[in-house]
Amino acid sequence: MTDESRLQDILDLIYARGQISRAGLAKELNLSPSYVSLMVRELLANGSLCEQGDAPSSGGRRGRFLQINPELANLIGIDIGTVHCRMAVTDFLGNIRAFKKFRSRAEQGPELLLQSIHHEIQSYRREFPGIKALGVAQSGVVEHVTGTLLFWPKVRGWQDVPLKMILEGEHGLPTIVEDSARTMAVAEQAFGQGRGLADFVHVTVGTGIGSTIFVDGKLYVGASGLAGELGHTTIDENGELCSCGNRGCLELYSSGWAIINRVRSALSDGVTSTLADVYGEHPEELSVETIVSAGRSGDRLSQTVLSEAGTHLGTALAGLINLLNPEKIILGGVVPRVAGELILDPLVYFLRRRAFQRSMSATDVVISQLDDKASTLGVVAMLAKELLGKLCMSKLRTDQAVSGSEETDLPDVSLKC
To answer: What percent of the chain has pLDDT over 90?
Structure first.
């Protein structure tokens, strides 16, 4: 193993743990304490690491906790949703320095929204020096190698949009593009209920439905990078036509869009509901939040629609548990966050009926406690993991050049997407 790979292991472990002592590094990586001290000394000297508090002592001199220097770089995270676009500037550890949320107006096509995003990026770069990269979370279907949005279900005009190429060409910053279900899951692993878990699944239920699978602590993306499209698995072979071209997809029955559409259709058919008094003449103003509020107040239509959405989702997740046997399923997105037990209770009921009992007994089903910044922070965390070793090695290479020592052939700071 080379010094470069050992250095990467040291940096990855410090980032994953948040804080760790020199002794902890040596023990977990099976390296000599003297070697770890030497590497850490160089990383402290060039500002890649910093010390933060005293570590527990088992006798002798008390050690110090190490962490990645949050000032290593500033990063920009962008979450493009069907309703809102969220943008944040963070330090290297995901602490938010600026945040903005605005209407995406995605139905008007990519040009208008991208103009707004370009403007905000330029403004952020003037205000915050040291921005090193951009990360984009997008709720459509993304081709991860090229950073291209292949299509966006239910949103027209966004086929084959090369987001990575557009943003890198405009701003000259390395850029990654990921689907928002995946970035929300990474946020859960870094900051939420997935921290420390080896095998778990994050399921996002918003306008659409997506899932992200972690196996042995690592993100599973599949052969073509498209793993996790849970919303486009079939639950009714003779069901309605989905925007993806398939029939009977889960998204048609359990997504936020499906819930709103079911209530609108029922109101237009004259079904009795307290929502008719307020939204009967303005069904376009219905939202998941208003339907959940009505359900909590006893509205039978809202309760029925939410319960059926939970039932279908529970059936789909039973298959997922039988297939993967995860430690935990974390439900994220606006639907579980707002609906809570109105969707979770029927979901768990049918999950227990359809999943293998032994597998089900080993799986916790919980609702994410992260807020609507989760996807933005998740893509920042993915950026940080991509950049960490490259930035630190670049600093070491610069130090070697300044000191006149022999330069090591270290990689550049460009992102491999």
So the answer is: 75
R_g of the chain, CA atoms, integer Å:
24
- Widest Cα–Cα separation across the chain: 81
> Tokens 């959940």 identify what position?
292
Q: Per residue of the chain (417 residues), what is the pLDDT tens digit?
A: 678 889 999 999 999 889 999 999 999 999 999 999 999 999 999 899 999 888 876 666 678 999 999 999 999 999 999 889 999 999 999 999 999 999 999 999 999 999 999 999 999 999 999 999 999 999 888 988 899 999 898 788 999 999 999 999 999 999 999 989 899 999 999 889 998 899 999 999 998 899 999 999 999 989 888 889 999 999 999 999 998 889 999 999 999 999 999 999 999 999 999 999 888 888 889 999 999 999 999 999 999 999 999 999 999 999 999 999 999 999 999 999 999 999 999 999 999 999 999 999 999 999 999 998 999 999 999 999 999 988 888 887 776 666 665 544 433 444 543
3-state DSSP of the chain: CCHHHHHHHHHHHHHHHCCEEHHHHHHHHCCCHHHHHHHHHHHHHCCCEEEEEECCCCCCCCCEEEEECHHHCEEEEEEECCCEEEEEEECCCCCEEEEEEEECCHHHCHHHHHHHHHHHHHHHHHHCCCEEEEEEEECCEEECCCCEEEECCCCCCCCCECHHHHHHHHHCCCEEEEEHHHHHHHHHHHHCCCCCCCCEEEEEECCCEEEEEEECCEEECCCCCCCCCHHHCECCCCCCECCCCCECECHHHHCHHHHHHHHHHHHHCCCCCCHHHHHCCCHHHCCHHHHHHHHHCCCHHHHHHHHHHHHHHHHHHHHHHHHHCCCEEEEECHHHHHHCHHHHHHHHHHHHHHCCHHHHHCCEEEECCCCCCHHHHHHHHHHHHHHHHHHHHHHHHHHHHHHCCCCCCCCCCCCCC
User: Domains, the chain, ranges and CATH?
Assistant: 3-68 (1.10.10.10), 73-185+376-382 (3.30.420.40), 193-367 (3.30.420.40)
53: how many CB neighbours lie within 10 A of its CB? 10
Question: What confidence tens digit (pLDDT) does each residue in 207-223 have?
Answer: 889 999 999 999 998 98
